[in-house]
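Appendix B.2, paired examples.
Example (i):
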Amino acid sequence: MTLINFTSKNKRKLLGLLLIAATLIVPFIIAAFDSGNIEAKQSLCPLKMLTGLPCPSCGITKSWMFLYRGNIYKSLYFHLFGIPMFALAILLAIKLILEIIYQRSFFKNFLSNNILIWSLAISMIIYHIVRLTIFLYNNSIDDIIKQSVWK
């Protein structure tokens, strides 16, 4: 007899949980095997590789790597939303685990709050515009091309 009934809904939750776990584990593994020069290495972001310009989530992986190392300053330097996204990933993982075990939804009203979602989206857009403006101000076209695969 199984304790958990794996319906299609629970299978989706389990898949979500596995994706969250992979998202949390990959930066941990990279940080564990880094030789100390991760700051200078090329980003794995497809948009940055093609254009040389950072995407809205560029820096989250490095932010989480420094968070794992306990360096809050560098974590915030690489992406201001790195720590909140990390906390959100942990909370979502806990939520999915509880929903699979107890067969009921938790925090449904909180996570579907339109004001919260729009506030986060607008904050991320403003943050990205500011980052992109600073990036373009501090880098010449040649520097941007060197940061892409077209070097």
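Example (ii):
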Amino acid sequence: MIKKVAVFAAVVAVTGLCQPASAGETQMNPDPRLDAVSIGVGAASAVGYLALGGWSLKYHNVNGVTAAGAWAFTTIGCAAVAPMVATLVVDRPLTMREGDSLIASCVIPFIGGWLVDQAFDAHPEWDPSYKPPRRIRHARRR
């Protein structure tokens, strides 16, 4: 019973970290449907991992694939499929930030996307649509 409560508390704490990123007025608010895509594709890759392991939480080498190999297959599959599904769901090309966030969420569930959003907030020049502030040159007086 204690394990179930601890797992529930951990899930609540992690989902509390998943907040949309914003970098002030200039940053477009991300589409909330991307969170659902990330969770859905991540759940599908978790089911794929369990299927490769013989439907057991303790991994059994049923198909000749080790636990690390199954993790690699499902992570790469999630990272490949998540941006494709998200593009279909939002019906527009994804921004660099959205695509990177989806891929990072496949590698480190929930926290990966949050880390990418924090990195883009700290370095707005990484976004291809970013235009640096224009410098005003002053004339020199002689």
